[in-house]
Amino acid sequence: MPLAEIVLKNLQTKIAQLQTIAESDEVGAVLESADGIARVRGLSSAVNGELLEFPGKIYGTIFNLEKEEIICAILENHTKVKEGAWVKRTGHVVGIKVGKDMLGRVINPMGDPLDGLGSIKTETSYPLENSAPGVVEREPVRVPLQTGYKVVDALVPIGRGQRELIIGDRQTGKTTLAVDTIINQKDTGVVSIYVAVGQKESTVVKLRHQLEQHDALKNTIIIDAPASAPAITQYLAPFVGCTIAEYFMYELKKDTLVVYDDLSKHAAAYRQISLLMRRPPGREAYPGDIFYLHSRLLERAAKLSPAKGGGSMTALPIIETQGSDISAYVPTNVISITDGQIFLEADLFNSGVRPAVNVGISVSRVGGSAQIKAMRRISGTMRIDLAQYREKEAFSMFSSELDKETLRQLKKGALMVELLKQDKNKPLAVEDQVISIYAGVKDLLTDIPLERLSEFETALLKHIHANYADIVETFRTKKEFTRELGLLVQEVINDFKKDWLNVPTVPN
Ligand SMILES: Nc1ncnc2c1ncn2[C@@H]1O[C@H](COP(=O)(O)OP(=O)(O)O)[C@@H](O)[C@H]1O
Ligand SMILES: [Mg+2]
């Protein structure tokens, strides 16, 4: 073989080897690391969202791919990542290990237990960012998800697979409404996931205790990213909750309920990360993709078609407003993404209307079709009564002489408002709600003093459960309200009321 050819051959093999070295460009170097954000050079083939490994089994996820460098957020122990350290591609995106044993547990967004009850056995891994099910994989929302609150189940009903926003200032009962809804699922088979973002640890401890007391912890998973946790942890928490719910929805064909408490803090965490990455700030200093952040999270809620197993994910995102301002950037975004919203108002709350739902501006765009028939029938009448009340209430303040009809409407409205009040942790089964609201709508409660209404309601329901179990049973199973049943209930209520008010019956 001529010398030239040998040289050429050698060169060719060398070049081939060189290429393989170039292809394995899987190791880079840290240029800078501060506040949980690392700038990395090299890794030319890395992709957005990929998990990177740093020395000491520390991981980070890629947020920005720039021409010269990669910006990544470090998930844990970010202070241990030093400038000049190596960084490796892992070839996969961030995933979360999931399994049935997570039920009843409190975990952090990395999946580590926080309740000191030992390690959790997991079965498989699900990607943190998953695409939402498409149109053919879905089904319309048809099955109700009862919150146990009369005002919500009657006027802003939620269906399984729906996304209903709970919005209001601080201390207006947002968390209580969501947690009571979880408690109300203790016998429904619905798996609940409560995601705490940026809350005090003591709040989460209290909440866990509450769920345990009401025997609802067994069906619940709590994901805690406290205020003291790094922004990236708070950013990841809702996605982790959503991913775990997807596991139960797709794999175990379960109905699931996810509470994101709250997305205002989630948005703030994302803003912090974005500003540290020097992404250009937009309105209220939020990055341009803040809308996409929440829409891709909430779009994953769904009612699946039978072919997909028929499971569902209902999402109850919570937004905390400042001074009832719902026109701020994040609230308007989330309002437009969800299928309706429950407005809780500080004024109502402070005047004793609890739950402080403003029924005039709260809506549920899909839940109505999921309501049981009996409830749908009577709640329509109540909605009208309340609307008339609101209209007349404002106007009655300026006028001393009111006609009879207006007075009647005012009285009825006040009674309805009173009837819809409900203490926390006291959910009512839907059949009881129907009886109660029916009594109000049919003017059977007009002679009960308002301040004794709740007492009467409790006594009445107890009486009916004890003596007319068949009525309750009919509601529970048939879920319809026939004329005969209505008349029977009226008679029962009238009889009971006579005794209760201690009015001697006049013999005729
Ligand atoms: N329906 C209710 N009846 C009585 N107290 C309530 C009710 N809802 C909420 N509360 C009380 O009001 C306070 C604030 O409620 P919380 O749910 O923590 O508000 P938020 O989450 O909006 O800040 C809590 O002490 C809670 O127990
Ligand atoms: Mg709260």
TrEMBL record:
The keyword ATP-binding applies. ATP binds at G168, D169, R170, Q171, T172, G173, K174, T175. Residues 148-364 form the ATPase F1/V1/A1 complex alpha/beta subunit nucleotide-binding domain. Keywords: ATP synthesis, ATP-binding, Cell membrane, CF(1), Hydrogen ion transport, Ion transport, Membrane, Nucleotide-binding, Translocase, Transport. Its main location: membrane. The lineage of its organism: Bacteria, Bacillati, Candidatus Margulisiibacteriota, Candidatus Termititenacia, Candidatus Termititenacales. PANTHER family: ATP SYNTHASE SUBUNIT ALPHA, MITOCHONDRIAL (PTHR48082:SF2). It is an enzyme of class 7 (translocase). One of its GO terms (cellular component) is plasma membrane. The record marks S362 as: Required for activity. Residues 371-496 form the ATP synthase alpha subunit C-terminal domain. Gene3D superfamilies: 2.40.30.20, ATP synthase alpha/beta chain, C-terminal domain (1.20.150.20), P-loop containing nucleotide triphosphate hydrolases (3.40.50.300). It catalyses: ATP + H2O + 4 H(+)(in) = ADP + phosphate + 5 H(+)(out). Pfam families: ATP-synt_ab, ATP-synt_ab_C, ATP-synt_ab_N. It is found in: Cell membrane; Membrane. The keyword Nucleotide-binding applies. This is ATP synthase subunit alpha.
